[in-house]
Design brief:
Number of domains: 2
Shape: globular
Radius of gyration: 19 Å
Strand content: 15-25%
CATH topology of the largest domain: Rossmann fold
CATH superfamily of the largest domain: Vaccinia Virus protein VP39
Largest sheet: 7 strands, mixed
CATH architecture of the largest domain: 3-Layer(aba) Sandwich
Length: 252
């Protein structure tokens, strides 16, 4: 088991002590950001790329969603070279997990975090993997599957659970991002969406999709949800994670 140093008794004691000293917590955050290159990059994104940034924190690991990856591989197995987009790919862990299941897939990974894209390129040298510092595919690109996993959410909402998400990540940004991704999914293609703070069904785009019956027993249903009015939805859960775009098209 790996212990989180941020949750150790000593850290908690020091944090409580710092709360009693004006400015101490802010100074502590500044020192951490100065010493940690990853925190510096997150700070840069939050201040220089706020208009494009969704989830600022790049935490991930390989095999995070094995049931979803397995199911998607099965649904794409008939394609000789499926085209996949990992939206918000972070360090490329998701791409590498998909590569093991679909070795001939052409996978594009997008992220705004410069350090994560650099790490992804080092960890995965496959000529079929393309990691880009971007928040959108090329205008003419089409994909057989798009994954947006733990991207359309925000750590502040998770930590504070406010009654309204408007000041942090409004529903309109979610709906606009979904609409933009939809333009790059071929008819008959797939959208994988999990750990979002919104329901796909509440978007206008959802009318062109059918929810897949897949349910991930290895991950809990999404429960911290906000509606189109940006208000917290109480007593709601969203178990659907995979959506099939209606129509059919052949992949190259």
């Amino acid at each position: 088991m790996v212990l989180d140093p941020q949750r150790s008794p000593l850290v908690r004691i020091l944090r409580r002590a710092a709360q009693q000293v004006p400015g101490a917590l802010a100074l502590g955050r500044l020192v951490r950001r100065t010493l940690d290159p990853q925190l510096r990059e997150i700070h840069r994104l939050q201040h220089q790329d706020a208009a494009r940034l969704l989830q600022p924190f790049p935490d991930t690991f390989e095999e995070r969603y094995p049931q979803l990856f397995d199911a998607l591989a099965q649904r794409l197995a008939h394609l000789p070279a499926p085209r996949i987009l990992s939206f918000g790919c972070s360090s490329g862990a998701e791409v590498r997990a998909l590569r093991r299941r679909l070795p001939s897939a052409r996978i594009v990974g997008l992220d705004l975090n410069r350090r994560m894209i650099a790490d992804a390129r080092i960890a995965d040298t496959s000529p079929l993997s393309d990691y880009r510092l971007a928040d959108a595919p090329n205008p003419d690109e089409q994909f057989d599957a798009v994954l947006a996993m733990a991207v359309l959410r925000h750590g502040v909402l998770e930590a504070e659970r406010p009654d309204s998400c408007a000041a942090v990540l409004p529903f309109a940004r979610f709906a606009d991002t979904i609409a933009r991704l939809d333009r790059h999914i071929v008819p008959g293609g797939w959208l994988a969406l999990y750990h979002a703070h919104f329901r796909f069904r509440d978007t206008a785009t959802a009318a062109r999709y059918q929810a897949d019956p897949l349910r991930m027993s290895d991950c809990p249903p999404q429960t911290l949800l906000y509606g189109p009015d940006d208000r917290l939805l109480t007593g709601m859960a969203e178990p659907a994670v995979l959506f099939h775009k209606q129509g059919s098209a052949a992949s190259d």
